[in-house]
Design goal:
Blueprint lengths: L12 E4 L3 E4 L3 E2 L15 H10 L7 E3 L8 H10 L7 E6 L1 E2 L7 E2 L3 H15 L4 E6 L8 H14 L2 E7 L3 H7 L5 E7 L8 H10 L2 E5 L7 H13 L4 H12 L12 H9 L7 H8 L4
Parallel strand pairs: 3-4, 4-5, 5-8, 8-9, 9-10, 10-11
Antiparallel strand pairs: 1-2, 6-7
Helix pairs in contact: 1-2, 3-4, 7-8
């Protein structure tokens, strides 16, 4: 399939905060860093090619975080794409610190979050971040304090919209009384659906749901069923998992990531797959 024939406009659109329209298959920029989401990528030039190919493939939503690298992902996005094309939404996150590969620790006190936000603004070379997400609530910091500093930054014009990550319905309802929540980013895939109630809340409130870790087939039997479905569409299992996410909910905003241009094109091609009802039912039954 030629590049010009691959485009995520097949995936329909969603409005972030009812004012920023994006195509529903985005790009997660975690994997453009080094091993363990630490340091620079092994092949920087390939990563830059991937990032520069996004808009031509119709991908106008990029999700990153200051902790990816740390800082590396945001810096690469700016190097590849700044000045940004109109219509491109770059979302980032703050609230996790890094001490080494695959090590993550919540830190969401107001002073730290303010510093993290200012760092992201500088690295991304923007005056305002269209979607800033709290990466995690910090158990040592009241929710009101963490969200309060983001609300202040929003009032200053440094943040356009606010999102949360790894939150349940109770937390969402409490947070929504403090700030307007525009997106939620939780782990969700074929096998892992413990955040189903959160997804339902997002649907009821017009909030975008950004699933991370999109492919997990669970046990061997589930893997076999997924493989059978993939064969029927002459597609990869990963493509079927993405197609299922897109059909699962109109507020679903998958963000598959990669550091390979060939893999990026494969992901984007998943937006063309229209799963039959019988196959959707089979895939729905794969939840653990």
């Amino acid at each position: 399939m030629k590049n010009k024939e691959i485009n995520v406009t097949n995936s329909d659109t969603f409005r972030i905060g009812n004012d920023i329209e994006i195509n529903r298959l985005g790009f997660g920029a975690m994997r453009i860093t080094g091993s363990g989401i630490w340091g620079p990528p092994e092949n920087k030039e390939e990563v830059l090619r991937v990032l520069r190919a996004l808009l031509g493939l119709g991908v106008n939503f990029i999700d990153t975080a200051d902790s990816y690298g740390p800082n590396v992902s945001e810096e690469l996005i700016a190097e590849a794409l700044h000045p940004y094309q109109e219509g491109l939404l770059i979302a980032t996150k703050g609230g996790l610190t890094r001490s080494g590969p695959n090590q993550w620790k919540p830190k969401a006190d107001p002073a730290y979050l303010r510093s993290a936000l200012e760092g992201s603004l500088k690295r991304l070379k923007v005056d305002c971040i269209d979607l800033y997400q709290l990466h995690r609530f910090d158990p040592g910091v009241p929710m009101e304090d963490s969200l309060g500093v983001l609300k202040d930054a929003q009032d200053e014009g440094l943040i356009r919209h606010i999102g949360l990550s790894e939150v349940n319905v109770s937390q969402l309802e409490k947070a929504a009384k403090i700030v307007k929540i525009t997106t939620v980013q939780n782990m969700y895939n074929l096998a892992e659906r413990r955040w189903e109630d959160t997804l339902n809340w997002c649907e009821s409130n017009g909030v975008g749901f950004i699933p991370w870790y999109p492919l997990s087939a669970g046990n061997l039997k589930s893997q076999e069923k997924l493989s059978e479905v993939a064969e029927r569409y002459e597609a990869s299992e990963y493509q079927i998992a993405l197609a299922w996410l897109l059909q699962d909910s109109p507020v679903m905003l998958p963000i598959p990531g990669t550091s390979s241009l060939a893999h990026l094109e494969e992901n984007v091609a998943a937006s063309k797959i229209n799963l039959h009802d019988d196959d959707v039912e089979i895939l729905n039954g794969l939840a653990g």
